[in-house]
Amino acid sequence: MPDHAISSDPAVQAQLDRLTMLSPGKDVLGLTRIAALLERLGNPHLNLPPVFHVSGTNGKGSTCAFLRGAIEAAGMTTHVYSSPHLVRFNERIRVAGKLIDDATLSALLSEVLDHAEGLEASFFEVTTAVAFCAFARTPADACIVEVGLGGRLDATNVLTQPVACGIASLGLDHEGFLLAAEDGVPDMPPLDRIAFEKAGIAKSGSPLLTQKYSASMANTVATHASLHNAPLHARGQSWDATVYDGRLHYRDATGKLNLPLPRMIGAHQADNAALAIAMLRHQTAIHIPEAALAAAMEWTRWPARMQTLSAGPLTDQLPTGSTVWLDGGHNPDAGAAIAKTLEDGPSIHVIIGMLMNKDALGFLTPFGTLIKSIRLTGDAQEIDCRFDGIKGLVLRAEFVRKR
């Protein structure tokens, strides 16, 4: 899908216009094009600081945020590659702790796009190459890379030797890409196929840290890890974490930690934080003291993850005492996490914008009984719905494209 990235800097915008022309149409998963592009650029991905590679359906962005929080709390610098951006394209690439500046971004986009001529590289592949060039040319203590889509065939999977790989929660999303029939890939249940794709980031000798999954999904991940000689550290086995008495209690073979709960809203953030801790404690490239892990729980923020909007022009228009949350959830598991966060709370008014290829009904259903009203933004789709005062929201119509 087109990204519609825009910038107030004319030089950046000129390159973003070129970049946007690459999508849609060329977003076919695979490593051939990105490998060829990086080869033309001198293989910058082979000259990065210690890399933490994170995949998953939900929670991978927050896990990356906790990794960054802990590393920076320890007094070190880290690069971060994440997607998508919320406001500015620059948000995707954080170089040694700071968002990439416009001058550097425009120069790198121009360079990479020039080298991409004839390769039919995608939007994400070019962006990944830009990030790797920026990271290879600027010193830092670590590098955090978030998978864009899937894992096995994601452009970031050209990384050869991460110091730790992590897989966050797993669920159905991007089914058109990740469940597509493919030669050489065995037929398996949808969730097992998702696990297969996400576990594709496993690398020989790189610790693979995972959350708890169903037995069949866990077995799929374990099989993939064994195939690639990746030491597997599954939650509930090599490590575990739980919340009680208002604290996050973590344990692994090296000991136990008693940490503050994350400041980020939602019980699921304790799980994301725990995965980040496990990744940091199962590698030896950098040392993160317990004090830094505790600080990360307090300091880490990640926009649009049940983010409470502060006072401003939007909230000023609402009745006194209103609270506004912003969340980027777009699949049923994300809806379930929101439902748990809002459990036993008041009714809510929902404003939703979602692409036609997302399961909007599946996302809304877990917290449907709390919804008092719903409005749709944009022109992609509309929701025909009715309300029942006892049962709450009942979605009864199909999603249809506006004419």
Structural class: alpha/beta
The average pLDDT score comes to 85
Q: Shape from CA axes?
A: globular
Strand order of the largest sheet: 4-3-2-5-1-6-7-8
Helix content: 25-40%
Runs with pLDDT <50, length 5+? 384-403
Account of the protein in words:
With 403 residues, the protein is an alpha/beta fold. Helix content is 32%, strand content 17%. The chain has twelve helices and 17 strands. The longest helix is centred in the N-terminal third of the chain and has 14 residues. The radius of gyration is 21 Å and the shape is globular. The chain starts with 9 loop residues before the first helix and ends in an 8-residue tail after the last strand.
Keywords:
disordered C terminus, globular, 403 residues, eight-stranded mixed sheet, three-stranded antiparallel sheet
Question: How is the topology of this model organized?
Answer:
Elements lengths: L9 H11 L11 H9 L10 E5 L4 H14 L4 E4 L11 E3 L2 E2 L2 H14 L7 H14 L5 E5 L17 E4 L7 H4 L11 H9 L9 E3 L4 H13 L4 E3 L4 E6 L2 E6 L2 E6 L7 H14 L8 H10 L7 E2 L16 E2 L5 H10 L6 E5 L7 H5 L6 E6 L8 E4 L3 E4 L8
Parallel strand pairs: 1-5, 1-6, 2-5, 6-7, 7-8, 14-15
Antiparallel strand pairs: 2-3, 3-4, 9-10, 10-11, 12-13, 16-17
Quick summary of this structure?
Strands 4-3-2-5-1-6-7-8 form an 8-stranded mixed sheet, with helices on both faces. Strands 9-10-11 form a 3-stranded antiparallel sheet, with helices on one face. Strands 12-13 form a two-stranded antiparallel sheet. Helix 4 crosses helix 5.
